[in-house]
Amino acid sequence: MQELRELAKKLLLEGTVKVVIGYAEGRRGVLPIFAVTPGEAGRLIFDPRCVQNLATYLSPRREQVVALGRPAVVVKGCDARAVAGMIRESQRSRDDLVLIGVRCGGVLADPVSAVEVSEATVAARCPGCDARVPKHVDHLVGPLPPAPPGTSALDARIAELEALSPGERFAFWRSELEKCVRCNACREICPMCFCVRCVADKAQPQWIESSPHARGNFAWHMTRALHQAGRCAACGECERACPAGIPLNLLNRKIARVVAERFGYSASGDPESPAPIGTYRPEDGEEFIL
Amino acid sequence: MTREMHISEPDLRVLAEDLVRGGTRLIGPARPPGKDGAVVYREVKGLDEIVLVGDPPARSLKEFFLPPTEVLFTYRQKQGDVELAPAPHVFPPQVVLGARPCDAAAVSVVDKVMDWDYHDELWFGRRQATTIVSVACSGGDASCFCTAVGLAPDVAKGSDVLLVPVEGGFHAEILTEKGEVFVAAHATRFAAGGRSEAAMAYRAAARGKAEANLRADPAKIRAFLESSFEHPIWEGIALRCHGCGACAFVCPTCHCFDIVDEAESVATGARRRNWDTCQAAKFTLHGSGHNPRKGQDCRIRQRLMHKFAIYPGRFQEILCTGCGRCVRICPGGMDLLEMLDRIGREPAAPGEAGRGAP
Amino acid sequence: MNGGNLYQPHLVRIDEIVDETVDTRTLKLTFKDPMLAASFDFKAGQFGEYSVFGSGECTFCIASAPTRKGYLECSFKKVGRVTAAMRELNVGDTMGFRGPYGNSFPLEKMYGKSLVFVAGGIGLAPVRCVIQNALDLRDRFKDVTIICGARSVGDLVYKRELDEWAARKDVKLWQTVDPGGETGGWRGEIGFVPAIVEKARPGAIDAFAVVCGPPIMIKFALPVLNGLGFKDDAIYTTLENRMKCGIGKCGRCNIGPVYVCKDGPVFTAAEIKGLPPEF
Amino acid sequence: MSEAASTSTETGQAGAIEPRIVAFVCNWCTYTGADLAGTSRIQMAPNVRVIRLPCTGRIDPVFIIKAFERGADGVIVSGCHPGDCHYLAGNYHARRRFTVFREIMSFLGIDQRRITFSWVSASEGRKWGDVVNEAVARVRALGPFVGYRSLVEKPNAGA
Question: Using the beta-carbon criterion (under 8 Å), do B332 and A240 form an inter-chain contact?
C-alpha cells in the first residue's frame, strides 16, 4: 500500500503524470479516484475489493478524464489486458500512459459485503487466472498474494449449458435476456466498447431493435459478444455492472474459449499481438462450410 | 379516512391464496423462482414466496405501471392507407402485496407528471387496476435515505393499505377507498383493531434507523441546484460516472422514455414506448449532431436538477424516494446519498470542489 | 382521442409536395377524418409530432397559418431516420400527426403594433406561419417588415411566398444571401442576416420582433435588435430541443426548469436569457 | 418477408408450412453459380430468397439476426471458395467471423441446422441446387422458427 502511495506521489510531484487513477476507500466499499495532488495520492489502496477495471477511464470518450492530463492508472492483470487492447486498437498511445501494475490474488464477487478472498467469496472469473502479475506495465507494486483457491464456477456452468439441447439453452438464455432493460451499463463500463457511435445506437438502418424485449435483447447481446470476440479482456465488469444480473461472463468466457481453440489466440497484455478478428490464416478450420 | 384493523399471518396467507384463486394477479417482492438471486417484484403464487420485510428489491414497482417496453399501438399499411390498433388501456386487476412503502410512494409521485394536462391512459389504466398493500419497512440499509426526502419507512403515501408487522401478524391501516374495497372483499380475514403500541414502536425504530443515514434539507438542496448551474462541483462528481443509466433504470421515479417504431414486416409493426435515461449522450442528441448536454457533468446535473429542483418546482414533489437503489447499483461508485450530503453543506454560490473525492 | 391513447396519431394524407431547396421539402397534409379536418384548430407557433409508420415520429412546427383552414404544412430537412422516410413518401400517402402542442406567438398582444420578422434558412418555417397569419389579418397591424436570408439563393425556402410578399405594397421585404451565395441575377441583399437588420433599421416603437434561425444568427441578431431599441420582452423566438412525446412526459426537452414542449417552443429573448445554456 | 410471416407463425408442427429461407450470397461466385443453376434448369426448392452482396466479407452477422427477426426460418450464407475471393481475402475474414458467430448462436440455443454456410463457385450450379435443397429439407424438418420471432411477445418481466 505504502509502495503504491509513494510511487503515485512521486509521479505527481515530478510531473510525470497529472493524475493517478486508482482505488480509494469510499463510504460503501472501494471507489475509483482521480488523484491530482500528492495528498489525494495518499488515499490510494489496493486489496481484493478493488474489482473495478480502471482502464475504462482511459477511453478517449471520457473527455473530462482526458482533460485532466497524462494519467497513471492502477491496473490488475485483467485490466492491463484491456489497456493493451485499447493501445492495439489505437485508442491511446502507450507513451501517453503510465501503467502501475498491481499483483493480484483474485478479487471479490461482492466487494461490499466480503473482505477476504476464499473459495466462497472470490469472483467466479478469478480462479485459474494466468495474469495475476500484470504484463507490459511501467511499475509493478505489492507482494504477490496466493492464487485464488478452487476452480472457476464459470467453466462448470458453461459445460452444463453445453450439455443441454439447443431448445433448453434457448429457454435458459431467453429467461436471462428477458430481464435486460437495455440500460447499456455493460457497454458503457466496458473498456473495449469505445466506439463513438455504437451499432446499437444506429437507426439507419436499425439493425438492432432498441426495445428491451427478448428479441431486441438477443440481437444486442449476440452482436456485442461477436464484437468482443478476441477483444474482451475478461475483466467481468459488464456482468458486475448489469442491474438485471444477467450472467454475461458465461458468454464472454465461452467465446474467449472458441477464439482460443479455433484461432490459437487469447487476449494478453501485449499490445503488439494481432487481434484474431480482422486477421486470418488460409488454413483456418472450415468444417462447418459445405 | 384511515381505519385501523389487524390481520394475522395465517389470514394473510389465506388472503393471498384467495386472490390467486380468484384470478387476481398477485405481485410481491420475491426471489427468482427456484434460484438464488436478488429479490425483485414479480408475480407470485402465494405468501410463502414473498419477502415481506427486507431491503428494497433490486428493481422498483414502476415496471408494473410503466413497463420497460410497451406497445402504444400497432399499424398495418395497405396500398397507401394505414390502419391503427391502439393498445388496450384497461387492465385486469392486480394486487401488490408487500410493497416497500417508498416504492408505493414513488408511484404516486410519478402520477403527477403522467396527469399534467395530458392524462396518460396506459399509466393510469394500470394504476386503476392495481391495489397496493405495503408493509412498513424496518429501516433499510446503509444506502437508504427516505427520511431525508420527506418520506419514511412507514410512509402511507401511495399505498392503499399499510401493514405494520406486529407479533403474529400485522397492524393494518386502510388508507384509501381502493383499500376499503380490498378489505371489504376479504372482510373475514381482517379483525377489528385499534391503536397498536407494538406497531408504533416498530415504526419509530425504523424511522430512527433511516434518519441516521442522512439528514438533509430538501429546500436547501433545491436552492443550491437552482443557483449553481455553473459550478465546479459537477465536473468533479461526474469523473467516475460511466454514463450508463443503470441508476435511472432501477429508480422508482425516473420515468423518461423513448418512442420508437419497430416493423414486424414491410407492412406491419408497432410503435413502442421504452425506458430511456438522461444519462445517455444520445438522449438529447439533435439530428444535426448538436448536443445541448455534451458532457457527463451536464447529465449528472440534469438528473439531480430534475429530481430535486425541477420536479418539486412543477409538482411540489421530490422525484426521489431515498430508496438507495442508484447507490447500490452504480458500477462506478456514484453515491447520491453522498452527493446530497455534500450539496447540502455547499454554500449556494460557486466554491471550491475537489476532483472525484467522496 | 381516436378511442386510442395520447400517443396515437391522427391519420393525414399528403396532398402536395413542394421541394423548397435541394434538401428541404414542404408537405401539405389534410386529415383523413373529415370531421377532424373541419374542426382542427391551432395557434401560430405550435408544433406537432409527424409520423411515418415503421420509421417513427419527428417534431416540426406547423408551417402553415391557422387562418388557412383545412390543411397543415410542415417543412423539413433530411437529417435522420424519420425525415429520410418522409422524403420517400408520395402524394396520396398516409402519415400520422399528433398535436397541436406547445404554446404560441401571442398574436392578440401584437394587434395594433408593427411586426418585424427576422429569419434565417429553414427558420423561416415557424416565422412563415406567423407572417401568413398576420397578413391574413393585415388591417390589425401597422408596418410589417420581413428580413430573411439563407446561405445561398438556392437555399432560400418558400420562394412562392417570397415573391408574393415582395409584390405586396403593405410589406417591406428584405432578402439576403450570405456573401458568396449570390447568383448572377440576384437582386436582393448580400450579407448576413444581422447586418441586413442593421441596414433595414426597422422601428422599435410599438413593435414586436419574431426571430428564428440557426443559433449563430440569433446570437448576433439579438444585440442588433436591442441596439435598434427592441426590448428583450418584445423579441420572440422559438427553441427546438429534441422531443419524443411532445406533451411533457418523456423528459427529453428540459432546459433547466423549462419543458420546451409545454412552456415553449415560443419564448421571448428575455426568457431565453434566463435559461441555462442547454439548447 | 411480409405478411405471410405473421400467419405462418401460427403453425407449430414441423413440415406444416413452406420454410422461408434467406440466402446472403456474394456477387462474384455464388450469385453467378445460382444464376447458372437457373439457366441450367436445375430443380431447386422455391423457398429461398437470394440477397446479393459484393462479398461474403460484407455479410454482417446482424443480417442473419434481422432475417430471423423478420420471419426467416433458415439462412444460407455462401460465397467464393478460399483463394477465389474477388477482393483477395474477404471470404477468409468472413470465415473467421462466422466461425465465432455460429458458436454464439449455438451457445444461445439457436439450432445450427437453420444456418447453412457454403462455398459455391460460378461454375457450381449443381452444387448450389444441392445446397438449397438440403437446407430447405433441414429447415422443413425443424419447422418454422417461431421461437425467435415470438421473443418479442412476452413483455419484459413485470409488465
Answer: no
